[in-house]
Amino acid sequence: RSQERCRFWPVCLNGDNCPYFHPTFPCRTFPNCPYGKSCMFVHPSCKFDGRCTNSMCPYLHKLKSKPPVQPAAGPQSSGTCLTLCKYFPACTRLKCPFHHPAPPPKICRYGNLCTRLDCVFSHP
């Protein structure tokens, strides 16, 4: 894997097949992180997300006003559309043929120290 952070993360359609780095651990220097969008660690999500107008916002922005569509890493399986729905995340069509990415898993604040077997959060 590349040491360069995936520019599509956290909505990368390639998942584990992506040749770029996907952050998994929380940034310990946030909100004073000097790396911003190129940080190799996870920053908390911005409450304004795609509507944020602060160009210096240190928070993670999952959506932009027009999300870029990226090509797949491998061949497409039939019936799978990799074109991002232009109405996502507000799309209400139950059988929309376009892609609606799942939100990235939220990281458990207890990490490897978590003792809950039924914890719904991600553990590094």
From TrEMBL:
Alphabetically ordered keywords of this record: Metal-binding, Nucleus, Repeat, Zinc, Zinc-finger
Zinc finger (C3H1-type) residue numbers: 17-46
The UniProt entry's coiled-coil ranges are none
The answer to whether keyword Lyase applies is: no
Could you tell me which residue ranges the C3H1-type domain spans? 17-46
GO MF terms held by the record = poly(A) binding; zinc ion binding
Kindly list the GO CC terms recorded for this protein.
Answer: nucleus
**Which BP terms from GO are recorded?**
regulation of mRNA stability
Cellular location(s): Nucleus
UniProt lists the family membership as follows: Belongs to the ZC3H14 family.
Q: What is this protein called?
A: Zinc finger CCCH domain-containing protein 14
- Organism source for this protein? Nematostella vectensis
